Amino acid sequence: MAENLFDLTGQLALITGASRGLGQYFGRALARAGADLIITSRKKADLAPFVTEIEALGRKAHPLELDVRDHESILTMSAAAEQIGQVHILVNNAGCNVRKPAVDVTWDDYNLILETNLRGSFFVAQQIAKQMIPHRYGRIVNIGSVTSVFGFAGLAPYTASRGGIRQLTMSLADEWGRDGITVNCLAPGWFQTAQNKVLYENQEWVDYLVDRIPLKRPGEPHDLDGAVVFLASEASRYITGQTLLVDGGISTGATRATVQLASKS
User: Which residue ranges does UniProt annotate as crossing the membrane (predicted)?
Assistant: First the structure.
């Protein structure tokens, strides 16, 4: 057994959706723990600055083009990844969202979200698992959301996709556990990203949100570092099929049953 259960030295991690946002934070955390990276984006050129950043940390970063809505693109990326080396870790991060009242969601809106977040995650996991199975080792981290377990108005297709990720995680964990592969879901709460930046410009909404979070602040990207390294490492070797919520406690329900009392100092 490794002396440091969180050490990823000598491992290769594949991260989808790594041209911006949380995907890059996941990549930095894994690189600092010792992993080399394969990073993907729909446009390979968008990955160039991040490659430079990871190399400055002393790790390798291999950029690959990937559109998770295109099956041929997934197959091409998977074949290229296999040529780079044995993939030990997959972080299934690529995703999108469309915020609309349910009555205004279009057929195309729904397809975009489900095809990206749920179907894409499955077929990427499928192809990378095929490479992991002969080695009898793998760590798959599907990125879900607090909406994997909690409903929010205006996010109907998104919550459907993230709820599906949680169920998919459990099914794949059961199927691939015999092959030495763990499959878990990392579910962030409310974090400011490129997708939702406009929300955080509304101070009234931010105050409302913070009031519902027991830790009294939205998430900061580094709050996810420990969780992704944990699920990618030997420290989580007997954990599979689980959803790890990193949400400041908002999934407790955050609805008061009594008058809020000031904390005593």
Answer: none
